[in-house]
Amino acid sequence: PPHRPPPVSLRGHGLVLCPSVFCWPGVTVGKRPVAAGSLRYPARGVAALWESPEPASDALVALVGRTRAMMLTELAQPATTTDLATRLAVTSGAISQHLGVLRAAGLVTTSRDGRVTLHLRTERAEALLA
């Protein structure tokens, strides 16, 4: 029979749901005596986290250029400017310029959450990559 952890009583302290890349494929439960309990579960897409993205097609490279094509491929998941610069071995300034062009073309959207700015490809970019 599968191993089952002992029951955990929350005693009115609440429950925090925490997506995690560190508990895949299982679920873990945490409970401190005077804090809310936590239930950690596999984050969406964690199984593909370390897979390399598909290379950009020659047609896409001809249309938008090699760096922008690689950026669109990388932006299947949200990324910061620094993330993209590191992954593609390009300066942050160059990435910012390319993002501006891609954003103006409706291929990338940018959102800010506090001090973090994340970029993600749009449905238009998805169609272009298909």
Structure description:
By secondary structure, the protein is α+β, with helices and mostly antiparallel strands. The protein folds into two domains: about 35 residues, no CATH class; about 80 residues, Orthogonal Bundle (Arc Repressor Mutant, subunit A), CATH 1.10.10. Helices cover about 35% and strands about 20% of the residues. The chain has five helices and five strands; from the N terminus they run E-E-E-H-H-H-H-E-E-H. Strand 4 and strand 5 form a beta hairpin. Helix 1 crosses helix 2 and helix 3 packs across helix 4. The model has no long low-confidence stretch (mean pLDDT about 80).
CATH fold field value of the largest domain: Arc Repressor Mutant, subunit A
Low-confidence stretches: none
Q: Classify the oligomer.
A: single chain
CATH class group of the largest domain: Mainly Alpha
Give helix % range.
25-40%
Q: In terms of structural class, how would the helical and strand content be classed? A: alpha+beta
